[in-house]
């Protein structure tokens, strides 16, 4: 059984490899102008060149920083506000509908407002990223808090636990799966908004790099940047999944 | 019971009134804020001079065109992967390599290949819509009651017949949920592309208002974009209820 899985994996890698070979062939035969489509060899060379000159690494770190700061701020604020709203019936009745109303709002529409308030600055980018990333986390937290088994609250009441203790000992652990799912979702939002803010405000990062490469028609550099962005999205999401598995191990065991 | 219906409205109303009062009392002069009355006046004016309706048409056109293309691709791939386990396993690495690329990172590629305008926006929206559709369709097809598949085998349906007569009808409620989520994503991506670079539609309108330091108009666009997003969502939820009843909502909030 295990061997079959490995074999499928190998076959799957081979399929992906053949797609890359096809890409190389298309580029070599110049079916698409090399201005738009560099071969994987040229994209890889641009990637290596970018890293050895240190240029690309700096941009990558820039994007990761924007993403991480915005996401952490959003996580803390989102869980805090979500806990506050979710743990009180009154807040849920008055505040939650407004939040649900705001949810389908395309978050990027807040960018012009943020630019008007804060200018084309690092602070603007952080505000926008945090503002965008807070929604999935906050709504997931509210949902998680609202879905706590009511009997647990009854137990807490008969034990005369304080509200803080109820939140820390009962509500948060029980809402944790929802919260982590929300955090993983908002990670993607944070990456997208980082790229948009870098494009708009010219902040140091991969978004700015891909835009400049496109303007100068350096397609190999452009593809190198896009590949890095894909890798960033993939690796950060895997990292959060690993943390998720770790933190939720007790739950899997309980089932 | 009537209090329950008014409760959700109290907070936005109170905030709007407080803001209006505060703006009046302090004689607000700002490039980034405007009193609600001015925002609604600007919204009414922009609706009347057709600038917002035209921008809305542009944005919605790109949104729906991209949504149609992207969800058709996602649906086809999702059904293929859901029906054929070997195909799914073979394509796994390829899909997992492409999927995490943030849609907006394709913007510069689309820009040099297609230039400004509808086409590049539609391509990016389509790319963004493929993935939720693919993944949710695949899991919907896979969770079809196995007995249905046994019946279709017993009836000796050919593969296309099986897909048309069994797979799609059985998976349709969950596919529609995927479509609804994709529609939301499509609108978000379209507006984002317009804000970042493409000089058409609502996103370009709000950027222009900001650059002209028209805070009232900018916030009017913001309110309008929010209303469009909300209306789209409500519309699709209503359609879902209508088409599939409560069965569809079971697949929601997984």
UniProtKB/TrEMBL annotation, chain A:
It is found in: Cell membrane. The chain crosses the membrane at residues 7-26, 68-89, 101-120, 126-148, 185-203, 223-243. It holds the Pfam family BPD_transp_1. Keywords: Cell membrane, Membrane, Transmembrane, Transmembrane helix, Transport. Residues 60-244 form the ABC transmembrane type-1 domain. SUPFAM superfamilies: MetI-like (SSF161098). It is a multi-pass membrane protein. Its main location: membrane. The keyword Transmembrane applies. Belongs to the binding-protein-dependent transport system permease family. This is ABC transporter permease. It comes from Bradyrhizobium agreste. The lineage of its organism: Bacteria, Pseudomonadati, Pseudomonadota, Alphaproteobacteria, Hyphomicrobiales.
TrEMBL record, chain B:
CDD domains: TM_PBP2. The chain crosses the membrane at residues 33-52, 59-84, 104-134, 175-197, 217-239. It is found in: Cell membrane. The keyword Transmembrane applies. Residues 56-236 form the ABC transmembrane type-1 domain. It is a multi-pass membrane protein. InterPro entries: MetI-like, MetI-like_sf. It comes from the Bacteria. Its main location: membrane. Pfam families: BPD_transp_1 (PF00528). The keyword Lyase does not apply. Keywords: Cell membrane, Membrane, Transmembrane, Transmembrane helix, Transport. Belongs to the binding-protein-dependent transport system permease family. This is ABC transporter permease subunit. The lineage of its organism: Bacteria, Pseudomonadati, Pseudomonadota, Alphaproteobacteria, Hyphomicrobiales.
């Amino acid at each position: 059984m295990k061997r079959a899985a490995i074999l499928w994996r190998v076959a799957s890698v081979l399929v992906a490899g053949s797609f890359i070979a096809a890409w190389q062939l298309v580029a070599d035969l110049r079916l698409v102008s090399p201005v738009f489509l560099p071969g994987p060899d040229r994209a890889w060379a641009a990637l290596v060149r970018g890293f050895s000159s240190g240029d690309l690494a700096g941009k990558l770190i820039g994007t990761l920083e924007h993403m991480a700061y915005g996401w952490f701020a959003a996580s803390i604020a989102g869980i805090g506000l979500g806990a506050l709203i979710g743990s009180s019936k009154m807040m849920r009745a008055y505040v939650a509908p407004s939040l649900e109303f705001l949810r389908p709002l395309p978050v990027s529409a807040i960018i012009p407002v943020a630019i008007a308030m804060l200018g084309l600055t690092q602070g603007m980018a952080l505000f926008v990223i945090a503002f965008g990333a807070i929604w999935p986390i906050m709504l997931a937290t509210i949902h998680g808090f609202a879905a706590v088994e009511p009997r647990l609250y009854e137990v807490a009441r008969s034990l005369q636990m304080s509200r803080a203790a109820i939140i820390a000992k009962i509500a948060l652990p029980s809402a944790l799966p929802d919260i982590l799912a929300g955090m993983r979702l908002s990670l993607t939002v944070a990456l997208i908004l980082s790229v948009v803010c870098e494009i708009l405000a010219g902040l140091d990062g991969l978004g700015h790099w891909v835009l400049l490469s496109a303007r100068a028609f350096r397609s190999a550099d452009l593809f190198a940047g896009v590949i890095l962005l894909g890798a960033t999205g993939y690796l950060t999401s895997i990292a959060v999944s690993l943390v998720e598995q770790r933190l939720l191990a007790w739950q899997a065991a309980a089932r | 019971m009537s209090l329950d219906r008014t409760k959700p409205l109290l907070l936005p109303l109170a905030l709007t009134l407080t803001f209006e009062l505060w703006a009046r009392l302090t004689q607000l002069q700002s490039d980034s804020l405007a009193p609600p009355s001015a925002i609604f006046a600007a919204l009414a004016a922009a609706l009347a001079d057709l600038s917002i309706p035209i921008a809305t048409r542009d944005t919605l056109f790109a949104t729906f065109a991209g949504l149609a293309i992207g969800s058709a691709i996602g649906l086809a791939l999702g059904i293929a992967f859901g029906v054929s386990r070997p195909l799914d396993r073979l394509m796994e690495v390829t899909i997992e390599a492409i999927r995490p690329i943030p849609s907006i990172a394709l913007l510069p590629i689309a820009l040099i290949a297609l230039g400004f305008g509808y086409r590049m926006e539609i391509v990016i929206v389509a790319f963004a819509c493929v993935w939720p559709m693919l993944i949710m369709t695949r899991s919907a097809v896979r969770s079809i009651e196995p007995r249905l598949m046994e019946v279709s085998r017993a009836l000796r349906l050919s593969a296309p017949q099986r897909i048309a007569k069994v797979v799609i009808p059985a998976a349709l409620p969950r596919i529609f949920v995927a479509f609804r989520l994709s529609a939301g994503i499509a609108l978000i991506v379209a507006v984002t592309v317009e804000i970042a670079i493409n000089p058409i539609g609502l996103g370009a309108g709000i950027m222009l208002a900001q650059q002209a330091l028209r805070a009232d108009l900018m916030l009017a666009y913001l309110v309008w974009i929010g209303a469009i997003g909300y209306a789209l969502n409500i519309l699709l939820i209503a359609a879902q209820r209508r088409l599939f009843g409560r069965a569809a909502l079971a697949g929601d909030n997984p």
